[in-house]
Amino acid sequence: MDQAIKDMLGVYGVTADTDRFLQSEQRMFVNGEFVAAGGNETIDVIEPATATHLTSVPSGTTEDVDGAVAAARFALRDGDWAKMKPAARERLLLKLADAIEQHAQTLGEIETIDNGKAIGPCIEMDILGGADLLRYMAGFATKLDGATRQVSIPGEHMAWTFREPVGVVGAIVPWNWPFNMAMWKMAAALAVGCTMVIKPAQQTSLSMLYFARLCQEVGLPPGVINIVTGRGSTIGDYLANHPDIDKVSFTGSTPVGRAVGEAAGRALSPVTLELGGKSPMVALDDADPKAIAAATRWSVYFNAGQVCSAGSRLYAHSSVYDDVIDELSQMTSAMKIAPGLDPDCDMGPVISDSARRSILSYIEQGKSEGAELIYGGNALDRDGFFIEPTLFAADDNNLSIVQEEIFGPVLVVLKFDSDEEAMRLANDNIYGLAGSIWTKDISRALRYSAQLEAGTVWINNHDIVDSNMPCGGFKQSGFGKDMGPEQLQHFTRTKAVWLTL
Ligand code: NDP
Questions:
Q1: Going by DSSP bridges, is the β-strand pair 247-251/478-479 parallel, antiparallel, or unpaired?
Q2: Ligand 1 atom closest to Cα of residue 408
Q3: 180 pLDDT band (50/70/90 cuts)?
Q4: 342 in ligand 1 pocket by Cβ < 6 Å?
Q5: Does 172 contact ligand 1 (Cβ within 6 A)?
């Protein structure tokens, strides 16, 4: 660990447990044991608030993936997990959720240090939200049912269906919500009895490696959860194409998602793809500018804009446009940009130097294409991958900053004059992950929530989630749902059974 990080930890303070974990050698978790990568190679982990070396994680090999898949297959068919009754599985998952809650401070600190995100929301949403989802899904372990069916063919028969686990799940997790996105996949998969091989993003594997200790502590049988760290281009690709993986659940970019989807197509296996977004917020003429500005500021700048559902393009009716811009300018300029461990941090650094360069190049493109830069636009003159929260106004829906996912703290506001124009502009995008409508008029809210081409529509809000509500996109944002009862379908398969009397 570089001195700059030690200094930062000295300023903000972390638990002894976090400190011990970060100083320890990082190991993958396969078949219930902590192991080094087959080739003994490692990947450097760079801490985003100081841009210095934090630790190293194993760079897993394809043989490591094979070992993890074999362990998961054994656990699914022959291990204690396979024999466990649903009620026992539910109790074990509830115990695991309790362990997450007990270690929320440490998990939150590890996540913040690894990713750069603000500690308060991280503990609240990423970690405790993950524990809540696990509890929610655990309840379904005892409630999976099938149906008895009337059949009309000649003869005397009974017929029924039941749902069984889809099998061994390969989960490929992104770096923007390392713990929470893993939980979005794991909670439902475990509840229905699947086993898993999880590949965290190479930049942010630490919270999963700490979580592995909790799996061991609560007695999760070996092989149920396997965590293989390493590069997406090698082991991620290998996992997605693995013949003994029954289902892949992927969250990340649309290009990689497409490749993962192609692999699933070749294997004829089911896949869930939660991909990019460019979510519109539509403020109609009667909307409250203060409320919209507050929600937009939260949505597009929290997690430094690295949120797939971020409200990154805001369409404001000409009658509220100036007020919205004023409110946003004030709120944005008052934000505290700081390391995520700072308890007052509103926005931390972005994940990496390459992410920062990509975001800055979008900002330059926006300026050169004629958008008006109202606030921000620069990297901060300090160590770490910090960028100012950035606010643009534009009058052309075709600009790259309006159409493409920037995945950084960049908001573009556009003006419209009629509801029809707003809906046309909002839907004129390849993505369809989420969106919001802002109005006091319930009829217009309902009409436009139906028209918006998005997997989630919020009315007078943006970016709220609940374990009982499914998330997942339309169009190039992918398909399949995470969370809600809908997700159970993705991790189960229906078997039809006939009995001839
Ligand atoms: P990726 O899609 O490359 O990464 C997401 C996950 O996929 C990571 O675990 C990554 O591993 C893995 N991966 C990478 N290549 C492959 C592959 N060929 N086969 C299987 N798995 C693979 O996203 P990036 O990290 O490159 O981010 C790029 C952009 O993607 C962002 O700027 C953003 O626009 C979008 N994105 C969207 C997310 C969302 O929440 N919808 C989340 C993350 C990114 P590894 O990191 O080890 O390479």
A1: unpaired
A2: 32
A3: very high
A4: no
A5: yes
- Testing ligand 1's pocket by substitution, the residue of 44, 172, 180, 258 carrying the most ligand atoms inside 8 A of its CB is 172
Whether 400 has a pLDDT exceeding 90, the answer reads: yes
Residue 92 Cα to ligand 1 midpoint, Å, equals 31
Burial class (CB in 10 A: 0-12, 13-18, 19+), 429: buried
Report the separation in Å between the CA atom of 91 and the middle of ligand 1, taken as the mean of its atom positions. Answer: 33
Mean pLDDT of the chain: 97
Asked if residue 279 lies in contact with residue 433, where contact means CB atoms within 8 angstroms, the answer is yes
H-type helices in 241-381, by residue range?
A: 254-267, 289-301, 318-333, 353-368
Q: Which atom of ligand 1 is nearest to the CA of 172?
A: 9
Cβ of residue 405 lying under 6 Å from some atom of ligand 1: yes
Half-sphere exposure of 331 (CA within 13 A, CB side): 24
How far, in Å, is the centroid of ligand 1 from the Cα of 236?
Answer: 10
pLDDT tens track for 249-306:
999 999 999 999 999 999 999 999 999 999 999 999 999 999 999 999 999 999 999 9
Instruction: Give the active site residues.
Output: 274, 308
* pLDDT in the model for residue 39: 87
Structure tokens belonging to residue 298 = 């939260």
| Long-range contact set of residues 368-371: C-beta below 8 Å, sequence gap at least 24 | 369/396, 369/399, 369/400, 369/401, 370/394, 370/396, 370/399, 371/396, 371/399, 371/401, 371/412
Looking at this protein, which amino acid is placed at residue 428? D
Pocket flag, ligand 1, residue 467 (CB < 6 Å): no
Ligand 1 pocket: which of 256, 456, 477 to mutate (most atoms <8 Å of CB)?
256
Q: Is the CB of 259 under 6 A from ligand 1?
A: yes
The answer, yes or no, to whether residue 347 has pLDDT greater than 90, is: yes
CA distances from 467 to 117, 186, 188, 207, 321 (A): 22, 13, 11, 21, 34
Q: Is any atom of ligand 1 closer than 6 Å to the C-beta of 27?
A: no
CB distance 158 to 148 below 8 Å: yes
Is the C-beta atom of 263 inside 6 A of ligand 1? no
Q: Please check whether residue 270 is in contact with residue 166, taking contact to mean a CB–CB distance below 8 angstroms.
A: yes
Tokens of 429: 């995008």
**Buried b / exposed e across 150-162, counting CB within 10 Å, b at 16+?**
eeeeeeeeeeeee
Closest of 493, 494, 487, 492 to residue 272, by C-alpha: 487
Q: Helices (DSSP H) in 241-288: which residue ranges?
A: 254-267
DSSP 8-state code for residue 482: B
H helices of 371-501, in order, are 400-403, 419-427, 442-451, 486-490
Closest CA to 43 of 258, 317, 233: 233
